[in-house]
């Protein structure tokens, strides 16, 4: 059962990556044109799609609609400080090592986003985990990745290092 869930998670992650890849370059006009063109044949296309694609589509839909308001985030510096004070989360900086070494939030560990899946053993399931990066993009990808791997204790800090620094909070150097 666990093996099947792992395969489903990998397939779901790949599908989300493909959606992002092909959706990222579209302008609103292109997207509207493609959606209008697809609308006339979408019912026919749906009937001819393999069952696995439909299952994948419903899995992605379930994942996206299950996201709570706030999308697993800590919205501001005060919220992070409160969490750090009360719940002692693991703070993970998903930036590259050179970025981390030039300055990071105190007590954060560095697991670059590109190595996150190779370091799952460093990410606990039994206490809160907060990811951050420079501006929020990489941490959002990391949160989604960990949620796809079954972590329900992970949140992102969208203000990220830039917000922490702008707020005048303490900065550690490696």
TrEMBL record:
This is Rhodanese. It comes from the Bacteria. It comes from Neosynechococcus sphagnicola sy1. CDD domains: RHOD (cd00158). It holds the Pfam family Rhodanese. Residues 85-173 form the Rhodanese domain. The lineage of its organism: Bacteria, Bacillati, Cyanobacteriota, Cyanophyceae, Neosynechococcales. SMART domains: RHOD.
